[in-house]
Amino acid sequence: LAMDYRLLLPQLPPELRDMVYTQTVTSDNHATSAGLDFTSKIYESSHTRVEIIPVHHGNPAMLALQRYHFLEGDEYRHFILKTAVQLRIHVVFKGHTNTFVQEHWDKKMAAHLKNLAKRHPWLRKVAHYDIRILWKPASWAPSKRKRRVGAIAKRMVEVLTQELDVEQRVKRGMVKTDLRIADFVVADHVLKGQTLGLGEFV
Questions:
Q1: Is the pLDDT of residue 87 over 70?
Q2: H/E/C letters for each residue in 154-171?
Q3: FRET pair for 3, CA 20 to 30 Å: which of 37, 46, 158, 195?
Q4: Could you tell me if residue 117 is left (phi over 0), alpha (psi between -120 and 50 degrees) or otherwise beta?
């Protein structure tokens, strides 16, 4: 059966309603997952823990209009999904550095992200990413045959953002990254001269 919608702003055409919706999205609002299909997704492996958290700074009260069958509630959710979602991605590298194979990680994570985007197509429209990587390996023994920390972290960012729609990337894509290194790794870098390759991450 077709649902009879109620109208909160019956005199405003859709383009003006979009302008109203735009004004409700502000950094003054607390980040929330209200109205989104999932609050977090965690991918755990022997080397990394990856948590994906979608949030937005919209108005939960506007989203709540859906419960009362207001057309504007559905429109507002669509507007949020299309224009206002940010993905916060937290990566912890916790495995043994010299047993990590970048290509294997890339392939597995790409498959996870592709499946997630199939279930939630709006993820491909997300243009803002906030990626934080904590390098806290179980063992730290750099090898000339292995990539350095900076190169690994850079490649992780590339893989984690590859589902972003090309058009969205060009128009309004913004990727914020933060790489943090455990104290004992920094100490080895200072005392033993073990290179991290942080210049490769920039």
A1: yes
A2: HHHHHHHCCCCCHHHHHH
A3: 37
A4: alpha
Q: What is d(CA 201, CA 195) in angstroms, rounded to the nearest whole number? A: 13
Helix (H) / strand (E) containing 147: none
Q: Residue ranges of the alpha helices (H) in the chain?
A: 14-24, 60-63, 71-83, 102-119, 149-160, 166-172, 183-192
Q: For 29, list phi and psi in degrees, rounded to 5.
A: -80, 145
Sign of CA dihedral 140, 145, 150, 154: negative
Cβ proximity of 6 and 69 under 8 Å: yes
| Percent of the chain topping pLDDT 90 | 69
Say how far apart CA 133 and CA 182 lie, in whole Å.
Answer: 11
pLDDT at site 106: 97
d(CA 194, CA 189): 5
The C-alpha atoms of residue 62 and residue 74 are separated, in whole angstroms, by 9
Torsion angle defined by CA atoms of residues 117, 106, 160 and 82, in that order, rounded to the nearest 10 degrees: -20
Contact 165, 119 (CB under 8 A): no
